[in-house]
Design brief:
This protein has 145 residues and is an all-beta fold. It has one domain. It has strands spanning 5-9, 13-17, 23-28, 32-36, 41-44, 48-52, 61-63, 81-87, 92-96, 100-104, 113-116, 122-126, 130-134. Strand 1 and strand 2 (13-17) form a beta hairpin. The radius of gyration is 14 Å and the shape is globular. It starts with a strand and ends in an 11-residue tail after the last strand. InterPro entries: DUF6188 (IPR046179).
């Protein structure tokens, strides 16, 4: 199991070392939040495609978090991350051990998704297709590290 080590930057993407972390909670409001082990959260606000197997064989289903149309995401509860990639174009790709693939493109008008983790890591898909990355000390609820 991964310990949620520091993400690695490449020319066109960030690879997050979350392999082996499980989805331990799913929250739904105007967003869909997947809470992982080790303090990581994936927050989806834009349309997100879930599929199983190859995209050609299964085009999947589109989740719409803003309208709480996310029932298909319940299959991710208890699933384990195999890979998680944040592209510098603002899109997100995740693969889980139950065969589910998650893809969230950037949005032209708003932040489509964000990922937050321990030690102050935060990735945000910016409007129009860019990626913002913060890294720093994690701040506790009372403003302390």
């Amino acid at each position: 199991m991964s310990t949620g080590g520091d993400p690695r930057e490449y020319e066109d993407r960030w690879v997050l070392d979350l392999r082996g972390l499980g989805v331990v909670r799913i929250r739904v409001d105007f967003r869909l939040t997947l809470v992982l082990d080790a303090g990581w959260e994936i927050v989806l606000e834009g349309s997100t495609r879930l599929s199983s197997g190859s995209v050609r064989a299964d085009p999947g289903v589109v989740l719409a978090p803003e309208s709480q149309d996310v029932a298909a995401a319940l299959s991710l509860f208890g699933a384990t991350v195999l890979s998680l990639v944040a592209f510098k174009s603002g899109s997100l790709r995740a693969v889980f051990d139950n065969g589910t693939r998650l893809r969230c493109p950037s949005d032209p008008s708003f932040e489509a998704w964000q990922i937050a983790g321990p030690r102050g890591w935060r990735f945000v898909s910016l409007p129009g297709g860019d990626l913002a990355v913060w890294r720093g000390a994690a701040v506790g609820p009372n403003g302390t590290n």
